[in-house]
Amino acid sequence: MIVDSSKWKHVFKLDPDKEISDESLDRICLSGTDAIIVGGSSGVTFDNTVDLLSRIRGYEVPCVLEVSDSEAIVPGFDLFFIPMVLNAEDPDWILGRHHEAIKEYGAMMDWNEILVEGYVILHADSTAAKITRARTGLSERDVQAYARMAEHLLHLPIFYIEYSGTFGDMDLIRSTKRVLETTRLFYGGGIDGPEKARMAAEAADTIVVGNLIYEDLERALETVQALI
Ligand SMILES: CC(C)=CCC/C(C)=C/CC/C(C)=C/CC/C(C)=C/CC/C(C)=C/CC/C(C)=C/CC/C(C)=C/COP(=O)(O)OP(=O)(O)O
Ligand SMILES: O=P(O)(O)OC[C@@H](O)CO
Ligand SMILES: [Mg+2]
Q1: CA 228 to CA 225: how far, in whole Å?
Q2: N or C: which end of the chain has fewer CB within 10 A?
């Protein structure tokens, strides 16, 4: 069965490069979140991804692999999200790596399971920004233009504003959402509890909670309840 991500309001992002106990994972998977995304910008390997998938697979929650390294593509997820970093200065992260991966896996890919995310990375100090050499000093009009490109030029299902590690500008998220019609707006970055979860959920379609899982599990779980 193909999972439908178009109604998700809250997702947790688990990093295969970080440790999580069975008890914490159990609470995350049973929290009522709409889905778990498995992904990270560094240290993601085939082995640590298989390990995390096999532990999440015991639960019913939909589970997505957000591919950041073609050596760590593991079959068996419900969906695969493929980031395309629209504001990357290094074109490798827009289409280069994707071309290499499709050369290798193209013949065996089930395209119905694959969703491309148009990413705009805005936190200059994040690993993702450094790796991709993201142009982070963008104006509101720049970001809106990327959103329109994602929707109308590229027909992408997801536009992802990534502030990984810091809480972003909610006015920018709101004004970007206004220019999107069908493409879903994902927001991630610095959600450190229910208050910010609510603020972000009012501005974006789907919010992503990552680091907080590893920093304060109780508050991470409260971000799910905050949206109910
Ligand atoms: C049968 C079978 C094997 C089927 C699989 C088929 C399949 C899914 C094929 C995929 C084909 C494909 C097109 C793959 C893409 C390959 C690839 C490497 C693309 C590049 C992705 C990319 C742009 C990565 C850059 C980094 C990035 C944007 C990562 C996204 C996640 C992110 C930002 C996480 C935040 O990370 P965190 O760890 O929290 O770090 P910081 O806060 O420090 O930034
Ligand atoms: O880790 P945080 O800052 O919550 O960010 C979530 C997600 O957008 C990371 O890709
Ligand atoms: Mg993280």
Answers
A1: 5
A2: N
